[in-house]
Amino acid sequence: MHGYLLETYGPPLSHAAKDLPDPQPGPGEILILNEAIGLNYPDALMVQGKYQKRPEPPFVPGRDCAGTVLAVGDGVKGFAPGDKVVAQVFSGAFADRVLAPENRVFARPAAVSPVDAAGAMTVFNTAYVAVAIRAGVKAGDRVVVTGAAGGVGAAAVQLAANLGAHVVGIVSSEEKAELVRRSGAQQALIITDRAEEPLKNAFKAQVRTAWGDDRGADVVIDTVGGTMFQAGLRALGFAGRLVVVGFASGEIPAAKANYLLYNNLTVMGAPLDIHFDEALDRLREGTAWWLSLLAEGKARANVTAVLPFDRLMQGLQDILDRKVTGKLVVETGARA
Ligand SMILES: NC(=O)c1ccc[n+]([C@@H]2O[C@H](COP(=O)([O-])OP(=O)(O)OC[C@H]3O[C@@H](n4cnc5c(N)ncnc54)[C@H](OP(=O)(O)O)[C@@H]3O)[C@@H](O)[C@H]2O)c1
């Protein structure tokens, strides 16, 4: 196979692809002919040794991939050679052959290309955990999404809108607002001052009243953290829920328990990874649902660039340099 074997941690452009021995699936494993790789910010951290988990090199990094099953190991029940799949592995996706444990592999409809499936995998599954599993959004709910033009944010807007919720997205520019409206939000509010007091005031004055009354939102999906989280609490109405998805601002906020008590609010976390082990059936339902939305054109993976395999590390560098809007996907050149 051809892949990026990371021998030591270092900046993206210090790593190159090479020929490697073909892997064989062990018990419970699936060997995938990998056609497309979705790039995520954590991949850029991982190759530098800056991700929260640091596997000992040598290893092949990469998490989101899509292609066709080549072979299955003993005990695999749900998949057979020839099946079209999408997977999120802990490592190993930066290669044209990927070994994945069965709980990380999902059936892919023929109508969803490997590029779209790989581009959507982490962000749509994360959005599904936040919007459907944790917040329990239903038709008619009022939902605010912060960082709404980001990968997870745009997926959350689309999933909440497809559930029949009334969605308001928070963004920092008109270009991002346009993307959020196209994703199905009723409104996209451009808020540029991110200092705590102005942001709290903007949420009190504009966001909680965005639906024409002062009842407030049922749910805030927060991908930004920091001052955005503090302000997000101000948009919530009676029994409102704020779902912590991530900290794109780099700041981890703290909630005052008395504010939650007096205002009858819930704050909850939405980590994707734990759901592969603890709630796989719910995740499989969710993956099947959002893949069907992509297949029917009711949601979009927002893939803005497709790179050849030898430009993969340049893609990670572009993510670090914040040059990327939408999702970046790499084609390996492998074909089923
Ligand atoms: N819970 C999980 O399991 C899980 C899974 C995947 C990702 N995450 C986390 O979720 C967060 C969002 O991920 P993503 O893939 O959606 O990221 P992304 O595509 O980079 O989008 C993040 C958005 O946050 C906003 N933002 C505000 N301040 C920012 C800053 N200082 N730097 C960068 N962006 C900033 C930006 O929108 P504006 O400019 O409009 O504000 C941007 O569109 C990240 O913290 C990520 O680590 C969590």
UniProtKB/TrEMBL annotation:
UniProt superkingdom: Bacteria
InterPro entries, A to Z: ADH-like_C, ADH-like_N, ER, GroES-like_sf, NAD(P)-bd_dom_sf, Zn-ADH-like_protein
Keywords: Oxidoreductase
Single Gene Ontology MF annotation: crotonyl-CoA reductase activity
Pfam families given in the database record: ADH_N (PF08240), ADH_zinc_N (PF00107)
SMART domains the record matches: PKS_ER (SM00829)
SUPFAM superfamilies: GroES-like, NAD(P)-binding Rossmann-fold domains
Domain Enoyl reductase (ER): 10-330
The protein's name in its UniProt record: Crotonyl-CoA reductase
Record EC number: 1.3.1.86
